[in-house]
Specification:
Elements (H helix, E strand, L loop, with lengths): L1 H12 L7 E6 L2 E7 L2 H4 L6 H13 L7 E7 L3 H10 L3 E6 L1 H6 L5 H8 L14 H13 L7
Parallel strand pairs: 3-4
Antiparallel strand pairs: 1-2, 1-3
The chain binds zinc ion.
Zinc ion binds next to helix 4.
Length: 150
């Protein structure tokens, strides 16, 4: 966790993004790490956890983080929470809380609220289009024999 906090500070001071860092450990060894790179890479999804998950998956050459522990300097935002569930590590440790982040100007409470709102009523309206045509991709997936389930 100390390393994650250090990444939060150094990444932010270097102008890479917000003060967030993340380290991923497997069997006592660091397999991935990252700091927030939103400003440096002009990528709104480059949160420390996502950067670290990508790094760890590359190291482990796998799309899941089975048996891994995630150490993040702050409680994950909804996007990172989703990414963590998709990556399936064993456990997550966080230092600061989302309330601490909100206090520093990183308030993600509205995203939790938006999840509850009907798609078409969200602040960014989300509208279903061409569902029947798109269902064909799912049909092909269901029929596909040689697939990696995840
Ligand atoms: Zn995040």
């Amino acid at each position: 966790m100390r390393q994650a906090i250090e990444l939060a500070k150094t990444g932010m001071l270097a102008g890479n993004g917000g003060p967030f860092g993340c380290v991923i450990v497997k069997d006592g060894k660091v397999v991935g790490q990252g700091s927030n790179l939103v400003l440096k890479t002009k990528d709104p999804t480059a949160h420390a956890e996502v950067v670290a998950i990508r790094d760890a998956c590359k190291t482990l050459d796998h799309f899941q983080l089975e048996g891994c522990e995630v150490y993040t300097s702050c409680e994950p935002c909804p996007m990172c929470l989703g990414a963590i569930f998709w990556a399936r590590p064993a456990k997550v440790f966080f230092a600061c809380t989302k309330e601490d982040a909100a206090e520093a100007g990183f308030d993600d409470e509205f995203i939790y609220q938006e999840i509850e709102v009907k798609p078409e009523n969200r602040r960014i309206p989300m509208v279903s289009l061409m569902r029947e045509e798109s269902l064909k991709a799912f049909e092909l997936w269901k029929e596909k024999g040689d697939k990696d389930l995840y």
